[in-house]
Amino acid sequence: MNRPSGLSRREFARCLVAGSALSLSALDALNAGIAQKVTALNQKYLDDEAPDGAYWEEIRKLYDFEDRFIMMNNGTLGPMPRSVFNALTKYYHVQASNPFDSYNILPAIREPLRTKLAAFVGASPGEVAITSNTTEGLNFIINGLDLKPGDEVLMSNLEHPGHIGPWKLKEKRAGIVIKEVPLGPTTRSTDEIVGAFAAAIGPKTRIISLSHTVFITGLIMPLKELSKLAHDKGLLILADSAHGIGMLDLDLKALGIDFFASSPYKWLGAPTGVGLLYVRKEALDKVHPTVVSSGWENNSDASKLDPAGQRSDAVLYALDEALDFNTRIGKTRIERRIKVLSARLKQELAKIPGVKVHTPADPYLSAGLTAFSMGGTLEPRLVDYLREKYNLVVRTTGNAQAGTYGIRVSTPIYISTKEVDMVVEGVRTLLAHKA
Q1: Quick one: DSSP state of residue 308?
Q2: So what's the pLDDT on residue 366?
């Protein structure tokens, strides 16, 4: 269903938010049409696994980008598909116009959503908590663990501040010890990673806590192998996977991880304000809730870790639609496209003298984040060049002293090899005119 003739997208959105009589039914009709569109595309292009082509061009049209805007920084925040924004708008409309329904009807989404979210990541509903973001989930686990003075946690040197901070606070308050496991900025093998953690385990080690999707280098940590290492040694293992959901075809049971936190608003297309926290059934009794309300004593599954109190259910309905949107396309198909696009970027960058690619070429150890450096001074210029010439967004990341400073590029499903080649052109141009 198209917006009424003569209305711009912004004007149409204002009408919906203002509460026109047609708004809720119109949004439902729009989303039904989008669902039918994806289903029809899947039937027509069932065997088409090409990185580009009509299928992905049509998927791209299900997002609203202004002024030829190209977002290639999902590592910070990704866009919402149109159907997700429609769901968010619809249920904020309900909250604004009928608060009675907001506390009597809208909260009914929580348990069905928990079940759907669990199925999406290969878990059981009782192992999933719905948080606000990755950092919140990490805090809930770290604060909730009973650790004694002198107990040791192993972390890599490639962690995000949102992961390091909670452990630093735990160190200050509980007297635990953080032990850093050094990994090179261009780590290339599973054996190298697992070996480094194995060598660091000592008699006081209690937990391995590490990034699954390393924000600095784009490395995907081998969680299955690391989980086996941890459990063979009687340790717990926690994964900061801010980028994992929506980028990777996750099966948390198969990975064997104890605790896993992720942010659906980066790659899955959900709005900000909603996060995933997974707690393996066998580890549930190891974690106390941090924020509680009435009845918490009787809650024995992962929902005991949900933030207590009133919250916006509109973002939960939008997450529900984001899960449906990704499921219709197919998790395996999404991961494959993301990896094909990133592989092209890495291959082309590797051909350019003066470029150092930080991200492994191995698709088992990499996915949608690609990081590279150009010598240390050209990186911010490349960010500006790509935005000014192509309206394309990437970012700098890392630390020069640690050897990780560079550009980070995301390759989500709605871009094509054309946009990948824009990045490569920018790199070639700036290096050719290097002062």
Answers
A1: P
A2: 96
- Inter-CA distances, 203 with 66, 199, 200, 229, Å: 56, 12, 10, 15
Hey, how many other C-beta atoms are within 10 angstroms of the C-beta on 51? 17
- For residue 186, what pLDDT is reported? 82
Which residues, in sequence order, are bridge partners of residue 410?
A: 369
Q: What is the pLDDT of residue 34?
A: 85
Closest CA to 81 of 270, 264, 274: 270
Q: How confident is the model at residue 401 (pLDDT cuts 50, 70, 90)?
A: confident
Q: Which residues contact 66 (CB under 8 A, 6 or more apart)?
A: none
In this structure, the strands spanning 369-373 and 356-357 are antiparallel
Q: What is the pLDDT of residues 263-302, one digit of tens each?
A: 999 999 999 999 999 999 999 999 999 988 877 888 889 9
Q: What is the largest CA-CA distance in the chain?
A: 71
Report the relative pairing of strands 152-156 and 205-211 from DSSP bridges. parallel
Instruction: Give the gyration radius of the chain's Cα atoms.
Output: 22
pLDDT per position as a tens digit, 24-82:
777 778 888 888 878 778 777 776 666 678 889 999 999 988 778 999 999 999 999 99
> Rounded distance, CA 305 to CA 144, Å?
9
Entry field: residues in the chain: 435
371: how many CB neighbours lie within 10 A of its CB?
28
Chain-centre distance for alpha carbon 214? 11
Whole-angstrom distance, CA of residue 166 vs CA of residue 224: 24
Amino acid at 400: A
| Cα dihedral across residues 254, 259, 265, 270: positive or negative | positive
The alpha-helical segments, DSSP class H, found in 107-159 are: 110-121, 134-144
| Mean pLDDT estimate for the chain | 90
Of 341, 336, 335, whose CA–CA distance to 424 is shortest?
A: 341
Whole-angstrom CA distances from 121 to 112, 251, 268, 359 are 15, 5, 12, 25
Q: Are 345 and 411 in contact (CB under 8 A)?
A: yes
Q: Which domains does the chain have, with CATH numbers?
A: 108-324 (3.40.640.10), 332-432 (3.90.1150.10)
Rounded to whole angstroms, how far apart are CA atoms 258 and 127?
10
Q: State the pLDDT at residue 330.
A: 93
Q: What is the pTM of this model?
A: 0.90
| Amino acid code (one letter) for 273 | G
Distance (Å, whole) CA 27 – CA 350: 46
Residue 360 — pLDDT band, cuts 50, 70, 90? Answer: very high
